[in-house]
Structures are given as C-alpha cells and as structure tokens.
Please model this.
Amino acid sequence: MTDTVPRPTLEAVAARAGVSRATVSRVVNGSDGVRERLAERVRRAVEELGYVPNQAARSLVTKRHDAIAVIVAEPETRVFADPFFARQLRGISKELTAHDNQLVLLLTEDRDDHARVGRYLAGGHVDGALVFSLHIDDPLPELIQRAGLPTVYGGRPDWNGGRRGVSYVDSDNRGGARDAVRHLLGLGRDRIAHITGALDQTAAVDRLDGFRDVMTDADPRLVVEGDFTPASGERAMRRLLDRCPGLDAVFAGNDLMAAGALRVLREHGRRVPDDVAVVGFDDMLPIAEQTEPPLTTVRQDIEEMGRLMARLLLRDLDRTGTPEEAAGAGPDGLILPTTLIRRSSA
Model:
C-alpha cells in the first residue's frame, strides 16, 4: 500500500515564498495590491510545489466559479449527428480553455430538461451561459433571466421582441441567402426553389427572407420547410419535384439538407448542375466537398461564432467583476459576414 502524498497547502506556499498567507491568497486569486517582486516569488513557489488552489475556497473570495454553461436547445441525437454543433462547441471550448474556464454542456430535449437546466443555473454553479440553437417558443431565455446569469446567445434573438440588452453573435443569414439566389439567377435559372430550415428558428427565417428579397414573385409552391437534417432535405426535394417538376435550381437552408436534396435529384435522374443547380449554406467541408458533385454553398465561420460568443461573455464578466453585475451589462450584437463558395453544383 502506498502512502498518499499530501497536497501542498497555502501555508506551504507562503513558507516557501517567505511571505504571509494573505499575500499568497491575493496573488492566487488575482487580486491587486501585491508588489511584482513578491508576486513573482509566490508564483515561483506555486510552480515548485505544484500547488492547486481549492476552487470552493477561491470562489468564496472571487465570487467566480470559472465555469460556463453551454446550453444547446436540441436533443443529444441531433447535437452529436450534426457537425455544425461540433464546430461551434470547438470554438467555444478553445476560448474558454485559453482563459482557464470549464465548459459545462447542457442539452434540452423536453420540458423536464428545461426545468432541470433552470434549477442548475439558479443554483449558482456557473458564472454565465452561452446558448444556441434556440427555438422561438423556447422557455430557456426566461429561465436564464430568472437565474440572473450573464448570457450570450448564438443567433439573432427573436423572443425578446427586439428589446435592447441582449448579447448575441450571428452570421449575416439574410445577406448570405440573397447572394446564393443572385448567383443562381446569374446562371440563368428562373425556377428557383428553397428548402427552409425549421421556421421556429431565426436563422431559417432570415434565410427565407433573403430568398424572398430576391425572388419577389416566387411561386409559393417552390418553398418547402425542412428542419436542417438530411432526411428533411430528401423529403422536401421529393415534394418540390412533385409540385414543380420543371424547377431548375434549389437553394437549401443548410448543407445537410442540400446533401439530401442531391441524393433525391440523382434518384430521379436529374443532372446537377445541368438540369438543376443546387446551393447550400454553412460550408461544412466534410459535407460540401464530398457531395456528388461538390456543393456550392454560403460559408459562415461557425467556429469563430463560438469563439466570439465566449469572448463576449468573458469580457463582460471581467469588466464588471461579478456575475451579478455582469448580468446587467450592455447589449452587444455581432453579425459576421458570409461568403459564397463556388463549386461544381451551381
């Protein structure tokens, strides 16, 4: 049986550095008021001893947990199957890790999950929340507001009725959709269909609005709602071919639905892009470059969106000192540009 080596204590660090316990505590907790020469001695002693601060004790001093809740308003089957979420989580994780914060992932599938997440947030376990893939009737914003947590949303908020005071990061979904449809028109296509995402999400609504901005007199039969999954792209494409067999282009609300649409067009003997041109949205390379043919699509920087969400939240926490103060910080809405990426499908 091996003896357990005791963890270094604050007192041991103080003895090694030749300073008081209070001085060590101030340095470890990032407080001001310690001369740089003494602070450097403390940091050297911490490294030499391998001292790890007690998080619970540190939280009492700083009122910070160095933990951020990342809430995805989707079931786990969707989150782990759609590469969009992996990219956004990667961006968030990189930024939080760089600032020594823990990511606490919370998923919601039904009302019981909403209640569970609400209780967790109200319990004071995290300093703030990052939320994305919200649906318009989602109760999460109200639960978060009750918990008093500083929050940054991924996607333009629609549930707040346009009120100021909400921080969010989004892409130019409407402008990107306009670019996609104008590109198809420039190819000489005039019977352009649109497969939307779920219209209880603002990204899908904005992309539909962008389509309508350009196709002002579009036949309503040329718009079919999907839900951002490949299967919904297949179903929508079949409906479109039944309704309007003479269509000559499709703008799909994301790459996954575009991939589903391409499979159905191939099944029906439609050549892409000769008979039907196809454009997607996202530019997720594992999908866009491996479809047959490779997919023309609108690129949004999904990982950068996640990184900026985390950066905004951490900035607010650092600027205001405590989560309670940060909850009242001013609004920040960042809209990232999109770029049309041309490949063989259109």
Remarks:
- The longest strand covers residues 67-72.
- DSSP finds 15 helices and twelve strands in the chain.
- Residues 323-330 have pLDDT under 50 and may be disordered.
- The two ends are 69 Å apart (CA to CA).
